[in-house]
Specification:
Order of helices and strands: EHEEHEHEEEE
Structural class: alpha/beta
Number of strands: 8
Helix content: 10-25%
Length: about 140
């Protein structure tokens, strides 16, 4: 299960909306406890492709985010990107490019911008995809 604070969910949505018509992307840092992941920080990255159907994360921003995660006792909990005009499903390209089988791959669909849909997936080393449950929680409910 994946836990994310409501304010961080809205931070992702805002970033993705601000990047329209292009795909947005970013990383999430957090902690893992058993099979659960608790997102502690959202890293909003630049899509260097400025494309409506592809993304490449800015490498300098990626390294800075990972460095910050390590400095603050977090792990790479996952990444996210938006689909400006497609459902919140992993594309074949998303699956093909997946490299970290311990992370969550999140997709935010903005097909209906008034109703964003965020989904998370795990991908195994054979490229099988399993949807993860996302719990959007308030701070008082959040893991310390």
């Amino acid at each position: 299960m994946l836990y994310i604070l409501k304010k961080d969910y809205f931070k992702i949505v805002k970033h993705c909306m601000d990047c329209l018509p292009y795909e947005a992307c970013g990383l999430v840092g957090g902690i893992k406890c058993g099979g659960d992941k608790y997102i502690k920080k959202i890293y909003l990255l630049t899509n260097t492709e400025a494309s409506t159907n592809h993304f490449t994360m800015d490498i300098k921003e990626q390294f800075a985010a990972v460095k910050d995660m390590r400095k603050n006792g977090m792990q790479m909990a996952g990444n996210f990107h938006s689909h400006p005009s497609a459902p919140a499903l992993l594309s074949e390209e998303d699956k093909r490019l997946a490299y970290d089988f311990n992370t969550s791959y999140m997709v935010l669909s903005l097909m209906d911008a008034s109703f964003p849909v965020l989904k998370a997936y795990k991908i195994d080393n054979e490229k099988n995809v399993t949807e993860e449950i996302i719990n959007i929680v308030n701070k008082q409910d959040y893991y310390n």
